[in-house]
Amino acid sequence: MAGRIPQSFIDDLLGRVDIVDVIDAYTTLKKAGKNYKGLCPFHSEKTPSFSVEPDKQFYYCFGCGAGGNALGFLMNYENLDYVEAIEKLAAQVGMEVPREESSVAQQTREKNQALYDVLQQSARYYQAQLRQHPDKQRAIDYLKKRGLSGEIARDFALGYAPPGWSNLLEAVGTDESQKKALLNAGMLIENPDNKKHPLYDRFRDRIIYPIRDNRGRIIAFGGRVLGDDKPKYLNSPETPVFHKGEELYGLYEARKNTRKLERFLIVEGYMDVIALAQHDISYAVATLGTATSTNHLRRLFKLVPEVVFCFDGDNAGREAAWRALEQVLPLMEDGRTARFLFLPDGEDPDTQVRKVGNAAFSKQLGSATQLAEFFFQALGEKVDMNSLEGRARLGKMALPYIDKIPRGIYHQLILDQLGVITGVDPARLSAMGSTSPAPPTAMDTVSVRNRPPARKRQIDKSLCMKAVNLILLKPSIVATIGEEDELAEIEAPDIGLLLQVIALAKQHPASSTPELLGRIYATPLGSQLTQLLNREQITPTEGIEQEFREILAHLLEGHRRRQSHHSFLEEARQKLHSRRNEAPGGENGPE
Q1: What structural domains does the chain harbor?
Q2: What is the pLDDT of residue 565?
Q3: Is the pLDDT of residue 360 over 60?
Q4: How far is the C-alpha of 61 from the C-alpha of 65, rounded, in Å?
């Protein structure tokens, strides 16, 4: 059901649930003073380092850094999004989730619901045909030939669209409203010029693969032809509920069948996903007739720290791998991993896993080519690495790509590796990055020299993160802040995150830690917060407010020093410019 969930309901929900009860259902907790301790459910350990604080309704693991409130726990443990976690938590305490929506939103929801309904009816129809249709044996023989079991066909809800122009139309399109819904859902094709069949089924004589969204609702279908029709594979068109550039086949099944996902394997076809799942590799997903996009990868990285791309080892496969690399570079934050698995010629994941088995295929995944290795290998093949000119050209090609990687340890390590390959100091390479593609002028050199050094920017980033931590521990410390405008001028990677958390805490000054966390999870900050909690130590300490003020003072002092230095340089530049203009011949000197 669409519509905004009122914040008052979320606050009430968090006030009613006991985080100890929520977490105790997943891992055994034992009383330890005023808190509870147990083995962390997010990483393997023998000595308990997982702590739950009933007073603050907050959990934290001293081993892996996972932390948050009851909603955050469900989101992280069960790979749920924010709304799904609210719905699950509400169901546990017998509360119905209310929604606020405009009349336009309600109409849109009702129209979309009609599409979900006919798509579900269509899926049931196709599954029934695979069991009952007189011509079903052709479809069954094809699935058996591909090595699929009845169980895996059931798990992925495979079906059969028999030959004929109007089988689905007659079975599901029982009235005009149903016909309209089928048409809007992409299940029918309208052709007024065809007098005999002006409205007919899109899928005919095909194996049917239902495509689900992250909530398990069927939003589209893929079909593999059994006869000689073209194309061999056919997908539903774009509809109000299906946007193929955002969806991934098998993602719902992977989240459903794997308790704790650690990686995703991106493959090319439906059968690859299904065959791998049958061999207990249940974390494969496939794009739907499109190349892997940043949107796809952003969704996956919200759930796991690692993605593996699987391609053929030929030239076409390597070209596709390079396009995937270009999409993943801007998302390579510290802690994330991307690998590339290149299969032998003529093999795909379906045939390969059947040939070598689960253990060998999993081993291949574990040793797949790291992003940095593939990156430098692919660029190195384009130049003569034995010549100075070749290494210089490689550096020039590599820098714009490296510049896309978020600043951090990983970015620096790749820059260091480029320094080893080219023999150029990484600090100089950084100054030559794509942010300054042209040869530097004298004034460009001044600005580069006075740019805050990388180490200084990293310190500022750590301070911003620490300040966010302190706000989460004690939201009321933001009450006396009055320097937001000046803070907004600071150039630090996470200053925006800090300012947004300050603003949210100021809007709700009486919030407790779990209430503030609940509000943050509802915003785009939620994914950043999850990454923060996974790498920053959040523990109650004395003097929170004083430490927070000291951090802000340090950030502002550094910013003011840099501003003063820039003002001095600008004044000096103006004086120099003025003297040149006063000289005979003006700025260009004597004629």
Answers
A1: 7-92 (3.90.580.10), 103-235 (3.90.980.10), 251-369 (3.40.1360.10), 382-448 (1.20.50), 454-564 (1.10.860.10)
A2: 64
A3: yes
A4: 5
